[in-house]
């Protein structure tokens, strides 16, 4: 039986918050600055190499970070394991199935929806993190409007700043996914060009072709910040993210962010939500904590990877380029993201992320 930790942020001991900072915050700062430095010096990396983090995300934090969603209700409520699994399986079947149908019926709007959904979700994850590591009163960001602004600004870092820095490369992966979905719908090759043109326009509408609409959202962030211990973490992270996403090529930057920033933080959050995991983190037994998580995530990670293989088999013209393969992988990620966001939103409610 899975042990429950206290779900509320206000009850988290200082030693647990310190462990979260050691595992999910400081290493990412160091890694991102270290990666950005060579690019600031003019180093160039072949595009094919830049896909490595996205490929690795299939097993390194990325795909696995949502592979224990079925256990979340059990950890944060009185639900039995059977009920926890059943509710989440139904959620994934309904929402994931509906979103997959959306991709088949209208891949352009589905892709734009994925960008906006991911923007909100990645910002959502950082709002939790800032509240969880605040040593004062766990009230930073201070208010709901402040948290909403933080969500928008933090989500803009990986989703909008790369579009401004290099829209062409960023859109390339999205267009690969859209082209494969167009083929999967049975459209002839001669119709793929208009579909691609429409996709470009759709992705531009999300911010890629209009950097002027993105910059104000980002620059407004510091205006709303209130002096607090949490302000220091927030300010440093904004600086690190600006540096990272402006310096590092978009495909590489987003892949690293997915693995080492967003997914890692959520994994640590999940570990801390279980009594045995929380105790292991506080005791410094990080290997045991991550090992237990890996065992829990492995079965559904394998199922998700098999689904990627199924999509590959269905595509009339199998993807051959690495960008096309990653595009197909991102379609599945998109389908799984919608129900995952609902699970995380429920976690936020139970843990009081948006209250207090």
Summarize the structure.
75% of the residues lie in helices and 0% in strands. It is mainly α and 356 residues long.
List the helices and strands and how they pair.
Elements lengths: L13 H27 L6 H4 L1 H5 L15 H5 L4 H25 L1 H27 L10 H16 L1 H5 L1 H18 L7 H17 L2 H9 L9 H19 L2 H23 L2 H9 L2 H29 L7 H30 L5
Helix pairs in contact: 1-12, 1-13, 1-14, 5-6, 5-16, 6-7, 6-10, 6-13, 6-16, 7-11, 9-10, 9-16, 14-15, 15-16
Q: Can you tag this structure with a few keywords?
A:
mainly alpha; 356 residues; globular
Would you kindly provide a written description of the structure presented here, covering whatever features stand out?
It is a single chain. The chain has helices spanning about 15-40, 45-50, 50-55, 70-75, 80-105, 105-135, 145-160, 160-165, 165-185, 190-210, 210-220, 230-245, 250-270, 275-285, 285-315, 320-350. The protein is mostly helical and about 350 residues long. It has one domain (about 10-350). Helix 6 crosses helix 7 and helix 9 crosses helix 16 (about 320-350). The relative contact order is 0.20. Residues about 185-205 and about 205-225 have low confidence and may be disordered.
Our count of domains comes out at 1
Determine the strand fraction and express it as a percent band. under 5%
Query: Which outline best applies?
Result: globular
Overall mean pLDDT: 80
- Which stretches of 5+ consecutive residues score pLDDT under 50? 186-203, 205-226
Q: Rg from C-alpha positions?
A: 20 Å
Using DSSP, what is the number of strands? 0
Span of the ends, CA to CA: 31 Å
Query: Helix/strand-derived class?
Result: mainly alpha
Put simply, the count of helices is 16
Order of helices and strands: HHHHHHHHHHHHHHHH
The portion of residues assigned to helices is: over 70%
Largest sheet, in brief, is: none
């Amino acid at each position: 039986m899975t042990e429950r930790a206290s779900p509320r942020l206000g009850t988290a001991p200082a030693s647990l918050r310190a462990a979260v900072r050691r595992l999910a915050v400081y290493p990412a700062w160091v890694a991102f600055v270290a990666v950005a430095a060579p690019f600031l010096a003019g180093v160039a990396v072949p595009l094919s190499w830049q896909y490595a983090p996205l490929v690795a995300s299939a097993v390194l934090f990325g795909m696995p970070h949502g592979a224990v969603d079925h256990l979340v209700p059990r950890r944060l409520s009185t639900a039995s394991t059977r009920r926890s699994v059943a509710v989440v399986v139904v959620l994934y079947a309904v929402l994931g199935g509906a979103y997959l149908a959306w991709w088949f019926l209208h891949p352009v709007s589905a892709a734009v929806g994925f960008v906006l959904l991911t923007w909100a979700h990645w910002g959502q994850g950082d709002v939790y993190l800032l509240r969880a590591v605040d040593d004062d009163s766990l009230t930073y960001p201070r208010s709901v409007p402040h948290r909403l602004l933080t969500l928008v600004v933090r989500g803009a870092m990986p989703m909008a700043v790369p579009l401004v820095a290099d829209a062409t490369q960023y859109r390339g992966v999205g267009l690969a996914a859209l082209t494969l979905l167009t083929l999967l719908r049975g459209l002839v090759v001669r119709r793929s060009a208009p579909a691609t043109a429409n996709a470009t326009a759709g992705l531009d509408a999300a911010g890629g072709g209009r950097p002027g609409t993105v910059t104000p959202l980002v620059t407004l962030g510091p205006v709303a910040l209130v002096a607090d211990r949490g302000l220091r973490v927030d300010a440093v992270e904004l600086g690190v993210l600006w540096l990272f996403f402006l310096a590092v090529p978009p495909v590489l930057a987003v892949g690293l962010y997915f693995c080492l920033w967003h997914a890692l933080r959520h994994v640590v959050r999940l570990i801390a939500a279980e009594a045995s995991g929380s105790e292991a983190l506080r005791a410094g037994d990080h290997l045991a904590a991550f090992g237990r998580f890996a065992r829990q995530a492995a079965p559904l990670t394998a199922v998700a990877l098999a689904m990627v293989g199924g999509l590959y088999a269905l595509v009339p013209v199998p993807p051959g380029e690495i960008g096309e393969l990653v595009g197909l992988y991102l379609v599945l990620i998109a389908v799984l993201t919608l129900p995952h966001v609902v699970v995380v939103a429920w976690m936020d409610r139970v843990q009081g992320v948006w209250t207090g």
